[in-house]
Structure formats: structure tokens, C-alpha cells
Design brief:
The protein contains seven helices and seven strands. It is α/β, with parallel strands linked by helices. It has a seven-stranded mixed sheet, sandwiched between helices.
Length: 212
């Protein structure tokens, strides 16, 4: 079985449990929503990749024109669609797939959200290049990323054991500086990097405008 179906199957198995799981810290989550919406406007077209069961996309939907939301897990997307229908929210579309699968038009989004996903994807550099390509000039990339390299060594060891047992997905172990370097090397300018704790960073970055 190839990597992508394996990853999708892993998250499919967790989808129902994940949907019922409460936010770990409601105050931090609300602050992230506020910071994000500060950079959104009613005319914006937004993309969220790795959207999970759609909770955050549905919160932001009333603030923008449209949100296209994607995830590799069909079970997650099915729950997201049910939530959108139950909330009578029609300006969010949910589709199954990885970001690169959709072959989106260049310069087509005002903002792209990658929340709690950059530490899970196989090639962060490729994904960052795709985000940069599809953002409009001066567009905003917002990400919330666990910095698992900052975790104690015994936590990292446990994660690796769980991976070996098939109970944890692929994980990128990053520090804040390593992640910021990947982002800036792609052509983004950090606007704000908030660390609510030592093991995560909420980053707002703008697509750099090339001056001729």
C-alpha cells in the first residue's frame, strides 16, 4: 500500500473520536481565531488544507466570501460536510486529497490556512512552495505548528515507538527556527510568530512582493 492511502486510513480510523475531542485549550484556540480573522475580509477566498473535521473552517466561513477546505481522510471530510449542512453554511466546500493533488490556479487565494498539519506532511518544502504559488501577491499564510523537537527526549522516543507500531503517523520534528527558515526560504515574510507554549508556534506570514 502506498504512503498516501496508508496515511488516509490512519486518520479515517481516528475521525469519529477526533470529532468528539474537545479543544485542548479553549483560550488559546479563541486567540488563534481572533488573530486569523484580523487578516481576513468579507471578499476573501480562502483555502484550508488538512482541515480535519472542518471545525475551524466553519468558524471562519461567515467572515469571508468562500473557503475551500481539504483533507486526505474521507471520513474526516464526511464529518465536515455533515457539520456544514447542520449549521446551514454554504460557502465552504470540503474535498478529499492532498494540497498538491488539486492543481490549483496560481495567485488564486487571499489566504491559506495550514493548521496543525505542517508537522505531519511528508515534504513541508513542497507544500510551502505550493502555498506560495497559489497565494495572491501579498497573500497571507497562517499556520499553527507543533514544535516536537522541543519536546523532552522521552516524549520523542515514545512517538517513535508508536510510529514503529503503526499507532502514530509520519512526523516532522522541528524547532521554531527550523520551521521559520523553511517558510522564509520559500519566499514568505513573517508578520507574527506567537508561541502560546514552548512546543508550538502560530505563524502569520505574507507572500513577499518581488520589487522590480
Amino acid at each position: 500500500m502506498s504512503e498516501k492511502p496508508t496515511a488516509a486510513l490512519f486518520w479515517d480510523k481516528l475521525a469519529a473520536k477526533y470529532a468528539k475531542k474537545p479543544v485542548p485549550d479553549e483560550a488559546i484556540y479563541q486567540r488563534k481565531l481572533q488573530l486569523t480573522q484580523h487578516f481576513l475580509s468579507a471578499s476573501d477566498v480562502v483555502l484550508e488544507f488538512g482541515c480535519g473535521t472542518g471545525s475551524t473552517a466553519l468558524v471562519h466561513a461567515p467572515k469571508v466570501e468562500r473557503i475551500d477546505a481539504t483533507d486526505i481522510s474521507p471520513a474526516m471530510i464526511a464529518i465536515a460536510k455533515e457539520r456544514a449542512q447542520a449549521a446551514n453554511i454554504s460557502n465552504v466546500s470540503f474535498e478529499v486529497g492532498e494540497l498538491e493533488d488539486f492543481k490549483l490556479k496560481a495567485d488564486s487565494y487571499d489566504a491559506v490556512l495550514g493548521l496543525n498539519i505542517m508537522h505531519l506532511i511528508q515534504s513541508p518544502a513542497n507544500t510551502l512552495r505550493e502555498v506560495h504559488r497559489i497565494l495572491k501577491a501579498d497573500g497571507i499564510f497562517i499556520s499553527s505548528t507543533p514544535l516536537l523537537k522541543n519536546e523532552p527526549i522521552f516524549v520523542r522516543w515514545i512517538i517513535k515507538v508508536m510510529q514503529a507500531l503503526g499507532r502514530a503517523p509520519h512526523i516532522n520534528f522541528l524547532t521554531k527556527d527550523e520551521y521559520l527558515k523553511q517558510v522564509t526560504d520559500t519566499g514568505f515574510e513573517p508578520v507574527q510568530a506567537w508561541m502560546p507554549d514552548k512546543t508550538s508556534v502560530f505563524l502569520i506570514a505574507r507572500k513577499a512582493v518581488i520589487k522590480i
